[in-house]
Amino acid sequence: MTPSDAPPASPIWFEQWRSAAITRLGEPVLPSTDEEVWRYSRVAELDLASWAAPARAQDASVPDGAQAVLASLEAPAAVVVVRNGSVVHRHMAEGWAEQGVYVGPILDAPAAASPQDLLGSVAAEGPDVFATINDVNLIDPVLVWVPAGVTVDRPIVVIDWIDAEGVIVAPRLVVRLGADADARVLEWHGSDDVAAFVTSLVELDLDHAARLGFGSVQQRGSRVWQIASQVSRVAADATLDSAQVALGADYGRTRTDCRLVGRGATGNLRAVYFGEGTQTLDFRTFQQHAAPDTTSNLLFKGVVDDNSRSVYTGLIKVEKDARGTNAHQTNRNIKLSEHAWAESVPNLEIETNDVRCSHASTVGPIDEDQRFYLESRGVRTDVAERLIVAGFFDEVLEEFPVPAVVPIIAAAIEDRLDRRSEV
Amino acid sequence: MAELRIEGLTAEVAGREILHGIDLVVGSGEVHAVMGPNGSGKSTLSHVLMGKPGYTVTGGSVTLDGVDLLALPTWQRAQAGLFLAMQYPVEVPGVSLEDLLTEALAGAGRDVSLVHTAVADEAERIGLATRLLDRPVNVDLSGGEKKRNETMQLAVLRPRFAILDELDSGLDVDALRSCARRIEAATTEFDLGVLAITHYTRLLDELKPDVVHILVKGRIVESGGPEMADALETTGYAAWVTEDEPAAAAEADPFADPFA
Lengths: 423, 260
Prior knowledge:
The structure holds 2 protein chains of 2 kinds.
Chain A: H1 12-25, H2 64-71, E1 78-83, E2 86-92, E3 102-105, H3 115-118, H4 129-137, E4 142-146, E5 156-162, E6 167-169, E7 172-177, E8 182-191, E9 196-206, E10 211-219, E11 224-234, E12 239-246, E13 251-260, E14 266-275, E15 280-289, E16 295-304, E17 309-318, E18 325-335, E19 341-350, E20 355-364, H5 368-376, H6 381-397, H7 406-422
Parallel strand pairs in A: 1-5, 4-7, 5-8, 6-9, 7-9, 8-10, 9-11, 10-12, 11-13, 12-14, 13-15, 14-16, 15-17, 16-18, 17-19, 18-20
Antiparallel strand pairs in A: 1-2, 3-4
Chain B: E1 3-13, E2 16-27, E3 31-35, H1 42-50, E4 55-64, E5 67-68, H2 74-79, E6 82-85, H3 97-107, H4 115-126, H5 143-157, E7 161-165, H6 173-189, E8 193-198, E9 211-216, E10 219-224, H7 227-235, H8 247-250
Parallel strand pairs in B: 3-8, 3-9, 6-7, 7-8
Antiparallel strand pairs in B: 1-2, 1-4, 4-5, 9-10
């Protein structure tokens, strides 16, 4: 498919849906850092008026950067490349369409997927105004649709690339797994060296006993501002394994809302981040237990170097009916430079008894005993620190849902550590 | 023959002097046991020699074949040929044993192509289960496994001098025997010089000392032949520690094992 040849006439439902969003947004009011969830954020620096509205891509080729990521993946089940918000490439391996799998623009989705009911079905009006800004600026929302009972044993890949200067980009991904379906999805956020403002929104919808591995990699250029949300709804006995990697952007924020709505649902939420220069990487997490016997395990690990900053604030919320909940939240941070800054604020809000909850958070330099141990074997100090930092991320990366791209992530981390040694 | 020479070494922790002047010379292939009661400064001595942060050397010198070790950072002391088998080997999550040893050898400009084989061979010799070799360094290893792991690394790195800090603590009789035998063999295989710091004599059943030093309150109060260890076995440290002033209370090393 080449969208430039045949720009899809937007279906009426989509036009209506977007009009409603425009009305809802009105004159947008940005949040203030007085609100707890925006505390320590850089939202006050944002001037929406300085970014141009997006337009459907004229150039429908796949950017080189996206090609490089694709090259690392052997035989994916499906690939979609989104460029500045428009789908420019899609491919699905043989056999999946016959099983009812759909991966592509939501506007082209088959009626069986009821696309008009899917967009916004998990995020609703979204956790904040940036979700509505995403709604308003949508060009090609992407849908990954796996029908009930289907197992997709190769990765499904969505590459979201930006190479336009000075625009708002609104990537949107909706993943819907039917009952007992099983899939792994990789979302790759990359860019050329451009200035852009991105509002990314991901909706993950897991029906009964579905299993989704969702890997998200943010490796935008250093002039990109990204405010992203990942909202998931996990039904009974379903399992979400989410892993986020955040390396790029000037300001890169991700809010994660994991709603465990059915008995026995599980949400495993992991992330690694590595800030350098004057970057700010900002994470807000909500583990929401709304049903009995639900489990969530959160492990976010970050490193800040130079003058970079990271923010982690997390809330475990256990509702009245959610007895038998297991909820764990761990955030660990290493400060490689005395000028770097990491904030970590874990929180619990529990409205029932019969729960097992824990939270832990640490911020500190590289463990002195670990470094001494490696040095005592003859390993140079800078090499010892590289080994420890790479090892610190390992715990998350070894569980990454799409292992084929882990070497690219590891190489990007190595590059950062190389730049560090050169100083 | 190489020589590890410690002269008039004084050191303090948190402003408090723990070592009051240590003199020791260990030659290649020799085994010196440094024995002493709790709080005598044994662990401080091993940490100071390797350059662990938190200790301040206030006087004296330590040289390895004339090279001033105290002027070097820890990793260069190791590359100069010093090894410390730690009392409490540190868990380093995410770092593999092979990466550690490869970096250690590469840093010294040594051949790394045989690391994998050397690790496998030495692990077998020391009785360290192969499945443990794929784990991150020391992670989830038992006390005995950690000590076998220390000994295995020593054998792969082949230093000129090894300090064994309470190698015999926290391991069973079988593990102790394997570790001690391997180190004893190293004294002839690659002429390893050993400074074995220990509270008990059981390590010395397999690792035969040439010289035994008694360390009390930060000073070596007596040195002699292996027979001194045998005497200690029966009399303990009573002869060197006065009844009304137990050594442990007088000069506690903040890094010492609180459960020893």
